[in-house]
Amino acid sequence: MNEFDRIAEFFAPLAGEAGLGLKDDAAVLTPPHGRQLVLTVDQMLEAVHFLPGDDPAMIARKLLRRNLSDLAAMGAVPLGYLLTTALPPNLPEGWLKGFAAGLAADQNQFGITLLGGDSSSSRTGIALSATLLGHVAPGQALRRNGAKAGDEIWVTGTIGDAALGLEARLGNRPDPTGFLTRRSLLPEPRTGLSLAGIVNAAIDISDGLIQDLGHICRESGLSAVVQAALVPTSPEAAALGPEVLERRLTGGDDYELILAVSPEKTEALCAVCAGIKITRIGIFKAGEGVEISGDNNAPLNLASSGWKHF
Amino acid sequence: MNEFDRIAEFFAPLAGEAGLGLKDDAAVLTPPHGRQLVLTVDQMLEAVHFLPGDDPAMIARKLLRRNLSDLAAMGAVPLGYLLTTALPPNLPEGWLKGFAAGLAADQNQFGITLLGGDSSSSRTGIALSATLLGHVAPGQALRRNGAKAGDEIWVTGTIGDAALGLEARLGNRPDPTGFLTRRSLLPEPRTGLSLAGIVNAAIDISDGLIQDLGHICRESGLSAVVQAALVPTSPEAAALGPEVLERRLTGGDDYELILAVSPEKTEALCAVCAGIKITRIGIFKAGEGVEISGDNNAPLNLASSGWKHF
């Protein structure tokens, strides 16, 4: 199959109205009336962001979900996406079929359609990117720079599962139920929460709790103190014992949200997050940097703050 | 340098207002009032779209220009872009400096700003993509499917230079003036032409004149007859003799426009294209496929129609 066959068979059926059947040079989108657009892009590269041999449907879904999580962190409603694929010539056709099925599943789940893309051959491994569009009410996008001293630090879900799941997939951790592995392969972006007016700052955890919390601190001109014992853990991660604490605090790929919330907004936060586990883990203060309080409130010193691409 | 250092030093200075200093999870863009958005994405991969050792500034500019050419083919006004970079860890810092300088030069030339991006390490070669946004008046986007039987086929610029320039860069063609090489490295996207209401269909030549003209034929349900002798050639390509005709007709990367124009719109077309060479090369008819007429109107049979990624 050449690129045009691939587009016609696997990708054109995923196109929404603005995608013009993927038959033109570009998509034409009428922006939602009276809304601002929110735009983000993320890559997934073989041997960097996923393992050779990973299920193509899961790769597709994680590609969308990493970007959907960025939209969630901005408080945006997802709208659509553009896709790039660079594929080795010997890739079996079943790979593309699975990849497209994964895209279709999450398009359906998150209410998005394909707007356009670019299909190339690759001389090395598989390289993918998705550009996601969403929308917010004007001036209502959640930013990293809005946290105030005294705001409480809340997180959605449980923290550190994905990093432990990756280690399990590499054969370095037990994962008898497969839960940690699933958390690594298929994150749950926290779209659909009406956080505007409640949350002062937000970010999603892609590079690790400490590092991503550090971004809010830097942009808001504050420090953060986190009680390690409060950081929510799944039973499966807890079963690995206290020695995985540092891994949980610094491991990436959770795609949970970190939220800065004034104490008087606690009730409103809990109301809009009904059905999702949310946990208060610490507080923002004047100063700079992220401090982790361990047993007896002694500060924990961590070897690394989180993932950085070099 | 890690990804955050790279973003702060090289990419944040390129961000426009909607890019929020590249300090958030996504860009927030207020769409131009009463306009439709036009969105496109293209990749540039080392050893596929550019050669190892190519000037990073030229790679950056070509990455933007390939996408700007897609916007031009839709009749859109460029607005901004998102960027992905996947870079090997041993890449010299000077590469990034040159790459960012190339982006800055073309941002300035084409009136666009950086909205956001994603920076990753690569285990193989350099991989890049850009998602470009533009805007058009509602319903005025140029499409591939609007050509009518009797429309004349026009092209901008000269055809085939870039493919010959690539061959020159590979040492397989003479290029004493360097003109063909420059055409391969730095295309001139035809943005800024007010073609709405004049042109019935348009596409840019990325994969070769014949193949891209074929896309208009397929989407418009027509055939095209091109007089090979009318296809505009640069003096530098002409100097290579008639044996490069097929290469010129099927070689990609020219980023000139193919336009379908009713004969009574000729004058209006020439008026809006003042200062740009445009040439009538044939006509659309009922039927299907692209026919090339050579000497004495005998059809030319070509071995290939143009570039396809497998």
Structural class of chain A: alpha+beta
Radius of gyration of chain A: 20 Å
* CATH fold naming of the largest domain in chain A: Phosphoribosyl-aminoimidazole Synthetase, Chain A, domain 2
β-sheet strand percentage of chain A: 25-35%
Number of domains of chain A: 2
Largest sheet of chain A: 7 strands, mixed
User: CATH top level of the largest domain in chain A?
Assistant: Alpha Beta
CATH architecture assignment name of the largest domain in chain A: Alpha-Beta Complex
Which terms summarize this structure?
Phosphoribosyl-aminoimidazole Synthetase, Chain A, domain 2, 310 residues, 9 helices, homodimer, 4-stranded mixed beta sheet, 7-stranded mixed beta sheet, alpha+beta
What does this structure look like?
The structure is a homodimer of 310-residue chains. Chain A is α+β, with helices and mostly antiparallel strands and 310 residues long. Chain A has 2 domains: 134 residues, 60s Ribosomal Protein L30, Chain: A, CATH 3.30.1330; 149 residues, Phosphoribosyl-aminoimidazole Synthetase, Chain A, domain 2. Chain A is 29% helix and 25% strand. Chain A contains 9 helices and 12 strands. Chain A has a 7-stranded mixed beta sheet with strand order 7-9-6-10-8-11-12. Chain A has a 4-stranded mixed beta sheet with strand order 2-5-3-4. In chain A, a hairpin with a 5-residue loop joins strand 11 and strand 12. The two termini of chain A are 35 Å apart. The mean pLDDT of chain A is 95. Chains A and B meet through strand 1, strand 2, helix 2, strand 3 and strand 4 of A and strand 1, strand 2, helix 2, strand 3 and strand 4 of B. Strand 1 of chain A pairs antiparallel with strand 2 of chain B.
